[in-house]
Fold this sequence. Notes:
The structure is a single chain. The protein is an alpha/beta fold. Among the domains are: 76 residues, no CATH class; 88 residues, Ribonuclease Inhibitor (Leucine-rich repeat, LRR (right-handed beta-alpha superhelix), Alpha-Beta Horseshoe); 137 residues, Leucine-rich repeat, LRR (right-handed beta-alpha superhelix).
Amino acid sequence: MLRYLLIVVINTLCLSLAGQPSYPVFQSKADSVKYATLQNLINSYFTPARNLEPRDQRTLDSLLTKHAELRSRIIGYKTTYLKHPDFIDYSELENGNTSPERIVKLSYTKKSRKLPAVITRCTSLTKLEILNSSITKLPARLRKLKKLQTVYVYNNSAKLKLARNTTITGLLIRGTEGRFIPTSFKKLTALDSLDLSKNIGLNRFPDVSRNKQLRKLLLIENRITLTDLKASKTNPALRELYLQRNAIGNVPATVGRFTGLQKLLFNYNPITEVDQAIGQLKNLEEISFYQNDLTEIPAGIFNLKNLRVIDLYFNQIEKIPPDLGNLTNLQILYLSNNRITSLPETIGQLKNLQELYLHNNRLSYLPEQTKELRQLQVLRINDNLFTTFPEPVLALTQLENLDLSGNTLRQFPLELQHFSKLKILVLINNHWENPADMELVCKTLASQGTIIHQ
């Protein structure tokens, strides 16, 4: 199927990790044409000589709405990747300007279907970069390069096959159509890191079940849904799985088959449901549902006793169940930007908690048991509904960062002057009624180096 590229000016041009321009790719030519037309219309409203009238603003709002709807149909981004500056260009090898045995990092940028045999003379080669080519196979002769560990493939315009290799430990494929990406990686028996991020229209989960050495799998910014994730594709040896910016709506039970996982990231997905089988990931230490569509914390999470970090920023969570207290190894808890009205009394059981982020919620009090969080160093409760100072905070003398801003607090506690470890204190946008006490405390804290925003 043909893919169509569109270069636009505003809100579409982005930068790759290397600071190189990327352009959106659409499934159909019709969408590309509509998008280009809209982009030109929108651009016409931002000329220096134009003053927007109310009717212009209404028209612009309508155009921007259509613009956003079309953006939802983007299936990937095409990036103009350039040779890494630390790599030697193949032309230096081809022209005899550099002796093969001295090349450690090589960049191949020719538009060809086969890698030239001369590359196998680079016996010191550890990294091979293939850019903007049409290579159909990582050939068997690469086995001669005993030091070759990592292969990077960018913008390859042909279906890539893999020959058996026992030395390559890292493979990255980027900017390539999903249909051109290998379906299995079992022939790379030493593979411990596979990065298939930022490809075009990639919607299937790769089969990594036979890669027993694989520890890290990156699938960031694709169109993966996990609906095709079968048990036969999973791998208990995997330690880290990165699924940010995909099209995942439901996390299926088969995710629970990655029993070796320690880190699992779902940031920026429209997830509304998570199967309880996620509770089978007993080794998990970090999980993130940053900016998903959850209305509650998935129940299976509370079975993960080894969790150190949970990120639930930007969801629609209203209630935190008492089961939160099960996570006694938790060190960092991100609950900000939700709709939370209260915390359970069991929060006092999180004895190892060091950082607690609760800003931008609907809290008006903290349970008394919060004072049991003796290891807490960061507490952000700004932009909530507190009208009285939460007394449990006064027991948290290990605090280094305390943000109280954006509430309607009135009485400032003198006890804060004894918080000798406090490095940052934020007080702005409250209704303090005892400014003399506040000034006294702030003066004491400032003398010990505390940065205060008041």
